[in-house]
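Researcher: Here's a chain I'd like modeled. Treat it as a single chain, no partners, no ligands.
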Amino acid sequence: MRFEAMRYSGIALACMLMLAGCHTAQVSESVASKFGANDPDAQIEFWHALGEKPVTCNDDAFHGLLIYVDGEDKTETYAGRVDTLKSRGLLSGNFDRPATQAVDRGTLAVAIARSLKIRGGVMMRATGTAPRYAVRELIYEGVYPPSSPNQTFSGAEFLGVMGKMEDWQRGNAVEVPAAVLPSEAGSGGGG
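Model: Modeled as a single isolated chain. Structure tokens:
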């Protein structure tokens, strides 16, 4: 009798632990809410502070993506960032996740693939840039590390991806003749 009670208690505890482990990571406050201005000093502070964060949230990822794409983020709020990205087709129309929720690699992969105009393979074209195939294509192109669409990014990982986006856009420096200056090399197209 005592053994059965312990067994049921063990099963109940295991179920509770599994349920507790199945939630999306959140941050208490986004870096963009502190350093969201467009002046160069605020942008440098944003990138520096984000690199030290254990998790990148939606607000920070979208602020960083807009800075990368436009050179600045003209919006002042998370809702404005989401609206801007939706209007450009970089986010799906039904995207409704909170600002402080950890960004998943699939959502960001779709936005990156569309912003870099990466067409991808047959499956990515057939699925309309589904997160799974966008992640796979970015891995193939060397922009993403091997990962799944449901994983999140640390701040440092996100900064690494932003750097890889720049590398991809400039092209493969190895294929550029030595007579070409670095400022003249690569007009996009990936490596």
